[in-house]
Design brief:
single chain; alpha+beta; Arc Repressor Mutant, subunit A; 2 domains; seven-stranded mixed beta sheet; seven-stranded antiparallel beta sheet; about 50% helix
Length: about 500
């Protein structure tokens, strides 16, 4: 009986030592892992403060915006040329059918209205089937010779699409901004509140300039004579934009006027605003460029709601500060990227007029982003540390649960054995009765353990593999309600004391 007590005491001491050692090593391991992660973040994360990610985003966004804007510009240019060819050809046919010439039209208001009534068909077809905010035709004549400033008045039509976007260009609402009211009524087009019968080109010499350049280059193709205007606000209009202008040239070289497509500031903003949840104040600019300046007042801006017409007026010229991709205007600084492009093909009279596509954001917002980046990293580290501690505790408890069970059993048997016979306990009685549940193969392994053999000796005696012995052990443990081989041997030693009970 004393041997059993000594054995129980030794097992109990070993189990307690194992628990403390295992818990210590798991905590040490988690601490090392967390410290390693912290060192990596300190060395690589805080050093960049997120600037590496911002620079990569700026580079990628500039490439994407450049590709998209150039594609849109080329598309609008080609559509403007196609419309100009159709309108000029139709006007020639009208003159031929009615046996009149271009000069007769200039002094005949009725002829002008009839021509515009014909040409509106081409304008409607263009605006219905293309991504644009408006289409226009301007004839180099006026029917308002009796009004003041008639020298700067031009007859024509301007159709506007309300809420233009690239997702649903077809069947959008079309309104009438300029042109004879009768033409709008006949075509059931609603007049805008800013409607005027003719274009007032005072301080807007774009129409005459395009005509003059076309007259000076009679041998150039229309595709070479496309002119992309600076940001322009038609007089009495409420929305600015850029115009893709193409001269209306007859086969004999006469220039009837100008027609083309509009890209409004609203359409540009809707199509080219950067899509990002991280850099909320980043914006895109398409503008003329000089050697050291972005001429923002003549360009278009796409970004969040703070980018208004007032913003463009306040920061009309942004100075390129040089290295570091920095920009400055008055007291405000920006960071970003820009790329110099030409919206014209080689051989165009306007080829040397350069533009820039820019992606930038206010410098103070970069500082806010870097500060937030640090907060996110610190918060993530805190979560990581807490998670590591919880995982260490959970793993320790889970791993030692079976050892605790064995401890309790050993402790219970030990306490009972000091007061009375251990053979009378319910735990021991249950163990004895459960032996009958063992299969023949399991019983043979169990019997060898009763005789004092080790697991390795069992494999040699029964000529089975160690994996097979382990499988039998698991089943024996489950059926006899013990946790491990040590606990099993406690019961076996008690059985051996009962005069061969194990036999």
């Amino acid at each position: 009986m004393s041997l059993v007590k000594d054995y129980l005491k030794s097992l109990q001491n070993k189990t307690i030592s194992m628990r403390n050692g295992l818990l210590f090593h798991i905590c040490l391991l988690m601490t090392l892992l967390i410290s390693g992660v912290l060192v990596i973040v300190l060395v690589f994360g805080f050093r960049s403060d997120g600037m590496s990610e911002l620079n990569t985003y700026m580079d990628n966004e500039l490439e994407n915006q450049t590709e998209d804007i150039l594609e849109s510009s080329n598309r609008m240019s080609l559509k403007s040329v196609a419309m100009a060819e159709l309108v000029a050809k139709d006007m020639e046919e009208y003159f031929s059918e009615n046996n009149i010439n271009y000069e007769e039209m200039l002094n005949n208001p009725e002829l002008v209205e009839n021509i515009l009534q014909r040409e509106i068909t081409y304008l409607l077809n263009t605006i219905d089937n293309n991504i644009c905010s408006g289409v226009f035709v301007v004839l180099d004549t006026t029917v308002n010779t009796s009004v003041d400033n008639w020298e700067n008045s031009r007859a024509g039509i301007f159709l506007k699409r309300t809420e233009p976007n690239s997702i649903s260009p077809v069947n959008a609402k079309i309104h009438y901004l300029r042109g004879p009211a009768k033409v709008a009524i006949d075509n059931k087009i609603e007049l805008l509140g800013q409607w005027k019968m003719e274009f007032d080109v005072t301080d807007q010499p774009i129409w005459n300039d395009v005509i003059k350049v076309a007259e000076s280059n009679p041998d150039k193709k229309l595709s070479k004579l496309i002119y992309v205007s600076d940001r322009i606000l038609l007089k009495d209009n409420s929305e600015s934009g850029i115009l893709f202008c193409v001269p209306l040239r007859a086969t004999n070289g006469d220039i009837y006027g100008v027609c083309g497509i509009e890209m409004s500031a609203r359409l540009f903003k809707g199509d080219f605003s950067p899509v990002t949840n991280t850099y909320s104040s980043v914006f895109t600019v398409l503008s003329p460029i000089t050697e050291d300046r972005l001429i923002l007042k003549d360009g278009l801006v796409a970004g969040n709601s703070f980018l208004t017409e007032q913003f463009i007026d306040d920061y009309a010229d942004i100075v390129i500060a040089g290295e570091g991709f920095k920009y400055r205007c008055r007291e405000k600084e920006f960071v970003g990227r820009h790329k110099v492009i030409s919206l014209y093909s080689e051989g165009s009279p306007y080829y040397n007029q350069m533009h820039a596509i820019s992606v930038m954001m206010p410098s103070e917002d970069v500082g806010n982003y870097r500060s937030n980046y640090k907060k996110y990293v610190i918060f993530a580290l805190i979560i990581l540390v807490i998670s590591g501690i919880i995982c260490a505790i959970f793993i320790s408890i889970k791993y030692l649960s079976e050892q605790d069970k064995s401890e309790n059993v050993i402790k219970s048997v030990s306490e009972v054995s000091t007061e009375s016979s251990p053979y009378k306990t319910d735990i021991f009685k249950s163990f004895i009765s459960n032996i009958e549940q063992l299969s023949p193969a399991e019983k043979s392994v169990f019997d060898l353990y009763c005789k004092g053999h080790t697991s390795k000796e069992v494999t040699e005696i029964l000529c089975i593999s160690i994996n097979t012995v382990k499988t039998h052990n698991r089943r024996i443990f489950m059926k006899l309600n013990v946790s491990n081989i040590k606990e099993l041997m406690v019961y076996i030693n008690m059985m051996n004391e009962m005069e061969g009970k194990c036999e």
